[in-house]
Amino acid sequence: MIKALLIGVSGVGKSTLGKAVAPKLGWGFKDLDEQLRQTYQSESLAASMKAWGPEGFYQRSLNCLITLDQDTQRWLVAVGAASQLAAGDSQLLLSWPSVCLRLPLNQLWERSRKQRQDPRSFEDFMAVEYNLNRQKLYHGSNIRLDLDQLNISEAVDKLWAELVKFA
């Protein structure tokens, strides 16, 4: 069963923090992007998005989430950016408890440029990462957790303190 979803802009730390905090709660951790690749034997998310289209991608993402929710294991799931991007209707995603991880957008853009060699301008980054559909998802989450000025250990502790409410 899904205990909580981690959502947020690409590079905010959903997977990094999720992997660190899930064991402290006695939960398993799944990265939805990785689950999609495994379930549908996909080489890359970009290829999958192109082949399936946004709606097909989103439907497959939801199928993976529903399968995890039917499992007896308790899961913390990082919902990847591509699944959020395709999510025109955020209501189903928000039916699970969710935590939106937040950092200043200019900081995330710089991180994306340095760590992922992302060539997008700030405007292009914003158009994808913080579009209206995603804003609905982020603002509709149960908890919005600001990670600015926190080191990894502090962020893990802060996230744990919020997620323990869903235990």
Structure description:
The protein has helices spanning 14-25, 32-39, 45-70, 81-86, 105-115, 122-129, 132-140, 152-163, and strands spanning 2-7, 28-31, 75-78, 98-102, 143-146. It has 167 residues and is an alpha/beta fold. It has one domain (2-166): 3-Layer(aba) Sandwich (Rossmann fold). Strands 2-3-1-4-5 form a 5-stranded parallel beta sheet, sandwiched between helices. α1 (14-25) packs across α8 (152-163) and α2 (32-39) crosses α3. The longest helix is centred in the middle third of the chain and has 26 residues, at 45-70. The protein is globular, with a radius of gyration of 15 Å.
**Number of beta-strand segments:** 5
Number of structural domains: 1
Under the CATH scheme, the architecture is: 3-Layer(aba) Sandwich
User: In CATH's first tier, which class applies?
Assistant: Alpha Beta
- Report the sheet with the most strands, covering strand number, pairing sense and barrel closure: 5 strands, parallel
The CATH H-level superfamily is P-loop containing nucleotide triphosphate hydrolases
Q: Helical region count?
A: 8
**Portion in helices:** 55-70%
Contiguous runs where pLDDT drops below 50 for at least 5 residues: none
How would you sum up the global shape? globular
State the order of secondary-structure elements, H for helix, E for strand: EHEHHEHEHHHEH
Mean pLDDT, all residues: 88
- Side-by-side strand order of the widest sheet: 2-3-1-4-5
Distance between the ends: 11 Å
What integer value in Å does the Rg equal?
Answer: 15 Å
By secondary-structure content and strand pairing, the structural class works out as: alpha/beta
Strand content: 5-15%
Instruction: Kindly report the CATH topology.
Output: Rossmann fold
